[in-house]
Design brief:
With 280 residues, this protein is mostly helical. It is built from 15 helices and no strands.
Length: 280
């Protein structure tokens, strides 16, 4: 499995384009909308808490329950990454607060070099068979995630005309890339996905159900308005699939990629069903 994942062409392609994804996210950040949202900090605060604290803790609960499965570590790692880009589209479908969705994805992405390394360190203290190089992991995340994101914000403000020219083609390219990788990767690794599908589905379904109900309890108790509540619920269900695949290669744990694919497919179906339902 390890060799197949390391040599997987779609996995290596998506890893190369992670900086481009975060550069685009920087281009997509609207500072005026950010300022408006920061005036009402409550929805953002709850969203960040759910993403960087609640989801990892659910991951550790899943790890404790399924400690003897091949995907025990992967269940944690999938839930420590920032929110996924698909959340903005699903928030739009659900008639939620799209600027809040974008800001949450941006905020968790900015924090991810610190939060991912922190949780990887916690994982390494709990798992005897895994150790993390904190310095190397932090440097990689700064280079591949934080720096491109900040560069995108600077580029947007310094070169507005050029940003307007490249934004739409880059948006189309990245959407095609994500769709291509989402289809190609499962096909490329189908032997291992099919071999571990039942085990992966069981862990992923348990994790997603936990995410939905725990985040919903937090959101309901927050007394947020319905639009923001819908947005936070969508965000909780969407993890950054390319980052999961990139981490799998970086820390050389192939099970993370296999589980990441299974989790991504199941969570996308779950999030789509939620987005198209009329009820909260």
């Amino acid at each position: 499995m390890g060799e197949a994942v390391s040599n997987s062409l779609p996995l290596n392609i998506v890893t190369l384009f992670i900086p481009v994804l975060f550069f685009f996210l920087g281009l997509n950040s609207n500072l005026d909308e950010v300022k408006k949202l920061f005036l009402n900090k409550t929805p953002l605060a709850y969203g960040v808490v759910i993403q960087i604290l609640t989801l990892p803790l659910i991951g550790f609960a899943t790890y404790a329950i399924f400690r003897n499965t091949i995907f025990s570590l992967a269940a944690v790692i999938v839930l420590i990454v920032p929110g996924g880009h698909i959340s903005g589209l699903l928030t739009h479908i659900k008639k939620g607060n799209v600027p809040l969705s974008v800001l949450l994805t941006s905020t968790t992405s900015i924090l991810s070099p610190v939060t991912i390394v922190f949780w990887l360190t916690v994982i390494s203290s709990q798992a005897n068979n895994y150790r993390v190089d904190i310095t190397n992991s932090f440097i990689q995340l700064v280079i591949f995630v934080l720096s491109p994101f900040v560069l995108g914000i600077i580029f947007k403000n310094k070169f507005k005309k050029l940003t307007n020219t490249i934004f739409k083609p880059l948006d189309i390219f990245l959407k095609i890339l994500i769709v291509l990788v989402s289809i190609w990767t499962p096909i490329d690794l189908r032997i291992y996905i099919l071999e571990y599908l039942q085990e992966g589905l069981f862990v992923a379904c348990f994790s997603i159900i936990m995410v939905f109900f725990v985040s919903r309890i937090i959101i309901n108790n927050s007394k947020l308005d319905l639009i923001n509540a819908k947005t936070l619920q969508i965000e909780a269900l969407c993890q950054n699939f390319p980052i999961v695949l990139g981490i799998s290669l970086a820390i050389e744990i192939p099970e993370v990629a296999i589980y990441g694919i299974i989790y991504y497919l199941v969570s996308t179906i779950f999030a789509l069903i939620y987005a198209f339902t009329k009820k909260y």
